């Protein structure tokens, strides 16, 4: 009986121990699961913090960029007149400095220029009183001259330089022109150490940095023959001919004067400027005079506008009359007829501005 009770006790104890072991196993699994969850959360938090720090860095960088942009936008008013070459950012800072100096000078003179322009326009609208005195005539003439300068400056800003085209039979000399229409306003910087290279590159004519012509290497008779056969521009031979007949084929960069519309001295023959001391008379460019004769057929070529010929070969093409053709000043050609009809030819400078309408051509020829 006792033995049976002892065996029953052992069986019960074994059953209890199995339940305890199972419970312990479950508790351990639960703890392990909890630890894994905590580790997973901790890892996720670390990843999230790294991502957040990266995002914060990006946001900070973006804010810095926006701050810089806002500052740049705030300075747009100061740099509103700057027209820079976006492709050459390494050189833009120099032009910005130069443009700032120019803007300061322009703003300092803006009020005076505005007053001069308004005064000149007022004189043009009302013209002169027939009983005006000599002092009034002088004042009016000065105002007209001021107006002509202002109008010339406005045209300089609106017009663009024309690219020299290839005329086919011959290659005209490449113009040594400035890349900017306002180079003459920066002439003082040509020899400034920090701007010298920039100025020689963008304003070679103004700074006197045009390339000199290379002499022919081949005998003259061969180069002349090549020119006569129009072989200078043939692709197959162009490199060799450029090397050996550089001068004869017109590959030189001629020191061509700027176009009249960009010439600060103006022109005396184009009918668009007031004649004044120093302005250029109607004449072919001396450095390419022989080319003018060769390209004479281009003066009336219907496939080309003749802009190059008109600028450099006006006499050869008959664009001007060296005998001083009598005509009214181009800008006031409409007003001249009105002034002449009102009998105002003897008032002030009307006769010199409107010689044709005032029948004063004979007086002009005798001058």
Automatic annotation (TrEMBL):
Keyword Disulfide bond among UniProt keywords: yes
Keywords of the record: Coiled coil, Disulfide bond, Signal
ShKT domain boundaries: 176-213, 282-320, 326-361
Signal sequence, start to end: 1-15
Cysteine disulfide partners in this protein: 336-354, 345-358
Family annotation (PANTHER family): SHKT DOMAIN-CONTAINING PROTEIN
Protein name: ShKT domain-containing protein
Organism this protein belongs to: Clytia hemisphaerica
């Amino acid at each position: 009986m006792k033995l049976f009770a002892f065996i029953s006790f052992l069986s019960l104890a074994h059953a209890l121990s199995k339940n305890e072991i199972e419970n312990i196993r479950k508790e351990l699994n639960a703890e392990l699961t909890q630890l894994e969850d905590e580790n997973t959360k901790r890892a996720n938090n670390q990843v999230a913090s790294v991502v957040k720090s990266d995002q914060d860095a990006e946001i900070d960088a973006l804010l810095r960029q926006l701050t810089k942009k806002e500052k740049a936008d705030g300075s747009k008013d100061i740099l509103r007149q700057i027209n820079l070459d976006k492709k050459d950012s390494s050189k833009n800072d120099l032009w910005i400095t130069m443009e700032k100096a120019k803007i300061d000078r322009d703003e300092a003179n803006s009020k005076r220029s505005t007053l001069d322009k308004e005064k000149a326009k007022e004189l043009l609208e009302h013209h002169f009183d027939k009983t005006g005195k000599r002092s009034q005539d002088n004042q009016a003439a000065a105002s007209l001259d001021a107006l002509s300068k202002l109008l010339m400056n406005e045209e300089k800003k609106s017009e663009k330089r024309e690219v020299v085209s290839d005329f086919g039979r011959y290659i005209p000399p490449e113009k040594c022109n400035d890349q900017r229409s306002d180079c003459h306003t920066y002439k003082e910087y040509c020899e400034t150490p920090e701007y010298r290279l920039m100025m020689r590159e963008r304003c070679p004519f103004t700074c006197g940095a045009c390339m000199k012509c290379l002499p022919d290497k081949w005998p003259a008779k061969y180069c002349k023959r090549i020119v006569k056969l129009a072989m200078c521009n043939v692709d197959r031979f162009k490199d060799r001919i450029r090397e050996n007949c550089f001068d004869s084929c017109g590959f030189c960069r001629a020191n061509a004067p700027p176009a009249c519309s960009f010439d600060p001295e103006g022109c005396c023959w184009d009918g668009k400027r007031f004649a004044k001391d120093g302005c250029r008379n109607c004449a072919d460019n001396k450095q390419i005079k022989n080319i003018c004769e060769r390209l004479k057929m281009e003066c009336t070529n219907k496939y080309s506008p003749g802009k190059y010929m008109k600028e450099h070969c006006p006499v050869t093409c008959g664009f001007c009359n060296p005998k001083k053709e009598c005509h009214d000043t181009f800008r006031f050609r409409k007003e001249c007829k009105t002034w002449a009809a009102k009998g105002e030819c003897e008032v002030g400078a009307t006769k010199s501005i409107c010689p044709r309408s005032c029948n004063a051509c004979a007086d002009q020829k005798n001058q």
